[in-house]
Design a protein that fits this description.
Layout lengths: L1 E5 L8 H4 L8 E2 L2 E2 H11 L4 E6 L3 H9 L9 E4 L4 E4 L8 E6 L6 H8 L8 E6 L2 E3 L3 H11 L3 E6 L6 E5 L5 E6 L7 E2 L3 E4 L15 H8 L3 E5 L4 E3 L3 H12 L43 H4 L1
Parallel strand pairs: 1-4, 1-8, 4-7, 10-15
Antiparallel strand pairs: 2-3, 5-6, 8-14, 9-16, 10-13, 10-14, 11-12
Length: 295
């Protein structure tokens, strides 16, 4: 299966960085968050990527055109620097298609631009370029194939320190509780689509609006629940927290570094937010209204 990644948004809430580079190219450790997402898919055997570019397309292209394996891999240098032997490699088996999908396009428009590159794909994967997880992808794929729906996405709990409030008709509060104890879940990306998704889309439509509403009406959209680690990099605070997890050696999304046979390390205790995994700092939820910013 091919993997479509949306990399063209403006990243307005990370303005200090995104004025210089697109948000998917902001580093977590030595590599951009986009690279971490691609490594996640490559770990599960999906190496054929389609990057839907927009703002800062030149930055993404130049990064991979001038890619240095030495930054994140061990190597041996000999003969006074004349001979370089890599001891392992990141992207030798990756295939990356770079497509310009417009500066101001929304997610739906970017996906439509990729349609012609998916002509031979009955099923394909897609994702935002700013979210990390330790979710076991084969489990989601198996569920998707078994249920025969058109689309699936990762359903996660909102990573917030807020409390939700319930009131009666007189605005008297009858319940107040931590949001993690609610049944509220949000779209965490990590989509799986059948090619039929394009039949539900019209020109100019935002993917999560009209097309998903049509899928909902026909019961063809599945939310795959994951209660382990998930985090999007929407704000500077989010970036700081991801940097802290990485530098502390506790990056749950780096599944490619786990010993063989080790499953998700980020399962949450009952009632805990994802922020409890490696840090006490509250995370920022992915707001639906920010879809155009992330595109």
């Amino acid at each position: 299966m091919k993997v479509v990644l949306f990399c063209g948004g403006l990243g307005m809430r990370l303005r200090d960085y995104s004025e210089r580079i697109p948000k998917p190219m902001i580093n977590i450790g030595y590599r951009p968050i986009l690279w971490h997402i691609m490594k996640y898919y490559a770990y599960y055997g999906y190496h054929d990527f389609i990057l839907c570019l927009g703002y800062g397309a030149d930055v993404v292209k130049n990064y991979f055109l001038n890619y240095s394996e030495c930054i994140s891999n061990d190597f041996v240098l000999s003969q006074g620097g004349k001979n370089l032997q890599l001891l392992n490699s990141d992207i030798h088996d990756w295939k990356i298609t770079f497509i310009d999908t417009g500066l101001t396009s929304n997610i739906g428009q970017r996906l439509k631009h990729a349609e012609r590159y998916l002509a031979d794909e009955d099923v394909f994967l897609a994702n935002y370029g700013d979210g990390l997880t330790d979710a076991p992808l084969p489990v989601q794929v198996d569920e998707f194939r078994r249920r025969g729906t058109v689309a699936s996405f990762l359903s996660v709990k909102p990573n917030l320190s807020y409390h939700f409030v319930s009131t009666d008709h007189d605005a008297v509060v009858d319940r107040i509780a931590d949001v993690t104890h609610s049944r509220l879940r949000i779209n965490g990306g990590y989509f799986i689509f059948r090619r039929d998704i394009f039949r539900y889309m019209r020109d100019g439509e935002e993917l999560l609006h009209e097309p998903f509403q049509r899928l909902v009406a026909e019961r063809h959209l599945v939310a795959h629940e994951h209660d382990g680690f998930w985090m999007s990099m929407d704000t500077f605070k989010d970036k700081q927290m991801l940097d802290d997890l990485y530098s502390g050696g506790h990056a749950p999304w780096e599944i490619w570094k786990r010993p063989p046979g080790v499953a998700s390390l980020g399962e949450r205790p009952a009632g805990a937010t994802a922020s409890a995994i490696g840090s006490a700092t509250p995370l920022t939820m992915r707001h639906a209204a920010a879809a155009d910013i992330r595109s």
